[in-house]
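INSTRUCTION: Work out how this chain folds

Fields: amino acid sequence; protein backbone structure tokens

Chain under study, with its fold:
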Amino acid sequence: MSDHTDHTEHNHTTTSNNGFIAFVVGGLVVAVLVVVWLFYGGSDLDGAQDVNISVDGAGEAAQSVGDAAGDAAESTGEAAESAGEAVTPSE
């Protein structure tokens, strides 16, 4: 009689997910580059694009505002004195 043996062949295939990881890392690199570009806008990093603003002729307007504030403070003080006298009982 002949000997019968069962022989089973197993093929194991392993797959990796490196493609997805590379896609995510590439997306993160692009996002960081976009943020850097937005912050620096392609300008020189040595401060060559500083902005200076000056306002000429504001002296009289500033003086007028200061005078008005002083008058308002004086009026408020006088009103407070009048209110204090009205509340204080007279002798």
